[in-house]
Amino acid sequence: MVECSDESIYTGLTNNLDRRLKEHNFGRNDNSYTSKRRPVKLIWHQEFMQFAQAEYFEKKIKRWSCAKKLALANDEYDMLPLLAECRNESHAKNKDLDKN
Protein backbone atom coordinates (compact mmCIF):
# COMPACT_ATOMS: atom_id res chain seq x y z
CA MET A 1 0.00 0.00 0.00
CA VAL A 2 1.18 3.47 -0.78
CA GLU A 3 -0.08 6.76 0.58
CA CYS A 4 -0.60 9.35 -2.12
CA SER A 5 0.03 13.08 -1.83
CA ASP A 6 -3.72 13.65 -1.36
CA GLU A 7 -3.63 11.20 1.59
CA SER A 8 -5.59 8.54 -0.29
CA ILE A 9 -4.32 4.97 -0.15
CA TYR A 10 -3.50 2.93 -3.25
CA THR A 11 -3.35 -0.84 -2.96
CA GLY A 12 -1.70 -3.01 -5.56
CA LEU A 13 0.52 -6.00 -6.08
CA THR A 14 3.84 -6.53 -7.80
CA ASN A 15 6.73 -8.95 -8.06
CA ASN A 16 9.28 -6.10 -7.81
CA LEU A 17 8.50 -3.54 -5.12
CA ASP A 18 11.35 -1.11 -5.85
CA ARG A 19 10.57 -0.99 -9.56
CA ARG A 20 6.85 -0.51 -8.93
CA LEU A 21 7.41 2.38 -6.50
CA LYS A 22 9.60 4.10 -9.10
CA GLU A 23 6.91 3.58 -11.74
CA HIS A 24 4.32 5.20 -9.48
CA ASN A 25 6.54 8.15 -8.62
CA PHE A 26 7.95 8.79 -12.08
CA GLY A 27 4.69 8.33 -13.96
CA ARG A 28 4.81 5.24 -16.12
CA ASN A 29 1.12 5.64 -17.00
CA ASP A 30 -0.53 9.09 -17.13
CA ASN A 31 -3.98 7.52 -16.72
CA SER A 32 -3.17 5.60 -13.53
CA TYR A 33 -4.72 6.40 -10.15
CA THR A 34 -1.41 7.60 -8.72
CA SER A 35 -0.28 9.72 -11.68
CA LYS A 36 -1.97 12.89 -10.41
CA ARG A 37 -1.38 12.03 -6.74
CA ARG A 38 2.42 11.92 -6.68
CA PRO A 39 4.61 11.53 -4.84
CA VAL A 40 3.56 8.29 -3.20
CA LYS A 41 5.23 6.64 -0.25
CA LEU A 42 5.21 3.02 0.77
CA ILE A 43 3.33 2.54 4.03
CA TRP A 44 2.87 -1.24 4.14
CA HIS A 45 3.77 -4.36 2.22
CA GLN A 46 3.51 -8.11 2.63
CA GLU A 47 5.33 -10.82 0.73
CA PHE A 48 3.51 -13.95 -0.43
CA MET A 49 4.85 -17.20 -1.80
CA GLN A 50 2.00 -17.65 -4.28
CA PHE A 51 0.48 -15.07 -6.61
CA ALA A 52 -3.04 -16.31 -5.90
CA GLN A 53 -2.60 -15.56 -2.19
CA ALA A 54 -1.32 -12.05 -2.92
CA GLU A 55 -4.16 -11.39 -5.32
CA TYR A 56 -6.76 -12.61 -2.82
CA PHE A 57 -5.38 -10.40 -0.05
CA GLU A 58 -5.05 -7.37 -2.34
CA LYS A 59 -8.70 -7.64 -3.41
CA LYS A 60 -9.73 -7.95 0.23
CA ILE A 61 -7.75 -4.87 1.32
CA LYS A 62 -9.02 -2.78 -1.59
CA ARG A 63 -12.52 -3.01 -0.09
CA TRP A 64 -11.35 -1.73 3.31
CA SER A 65 -11.85 1.83 4.49
CA CYS A 66 -8.92 4.22 4.52
CA ALA A 67 -8.96 4.10 8.34
CA LYS A 68 -8.69 0.31 8.37
CA LYS A 69 -5.83 0.36 5.84
CA LEU A 70 -3.98 2.92 7.96
CA ALA A 71 -4.50 0.79 11.09
CA LEU A 72 -2.87 -2.14 9.27
CA ALA A 73 -0.02 0.07 8.07
CA ASN A 74 0.52 1.39 11.61
CA ASP A 75 0.52 -2.11 13.18
CA GLU A 76 -2.69 -1.31 15.06
CA TYR A 77 -4.02 -4.84 14.63
CA ASP A 78 -6.41 -4.56 17.58
CA MET A 79 -8.27 -1.83 15.69
CA LEU A 80 -8.99 -3.98 12.61
CA PRO A 81 -12.08 -5.79 13.99
CA LEU A 82 -13.54 -2.52 15.27
CA LEU A 83 -12.97 -0.77 11.95
CA ALA A 84 -14.54 -3.72 10.14
CA GLU A 85 -17.90 -3.27 11.84
CA CYS A 86 -20.66 -1.83 9.71
CA ARG A 87 -21.83 1.54 10.94
CA ASN A 88 -24.65 2.17 8.46
CA GLU A 89 -27.97 3.27 9.93
CA SER A 90 -29.69 0.31 8.33
CA HIS A 91 -27.31 -2.25 9.83
CA ALA A 92 -29.06 -4.81 12.04
CA LYS A 93 -26.90 -3.99 15.08
CA ASN A 94 -28.06 -0.36 14.95
CA LYS A 95 -31.78 -1.05 14.80
CA ASP A 96 -33.78 0.11 17.81
CA LEU A 97 -30.83 2.01 19.33
CA ASP A 98 -32.88 5.21 19.44
CA LYS A 99 -35.83 3.62 21.20
CA ASN A 100 -36.07 3.88 24.98
From TrEMBL:
Note the CDD domains from the entry: GIY-YIG_UPF0213
Query: Which Pfam families does the UniProt record give?
Result: GIY-YIG
What InterPro entries would the database entry show? GIY-YIG_endonuc (IPR000305), GIY-YIG_endonuc_sf (IPR035901), UPF0213_domain (IPR050190)
Q: Which residues form the GIY-YIG domain?
A: 1-72
What protein family is recorded?
Belongs to the UPF0213 family.
What name appears for this protein in its UniProt entry? GIY-YIG nuclease family protein
Source organism of this protein record: Maribacter algarum (ex Zhang et al. 2020)
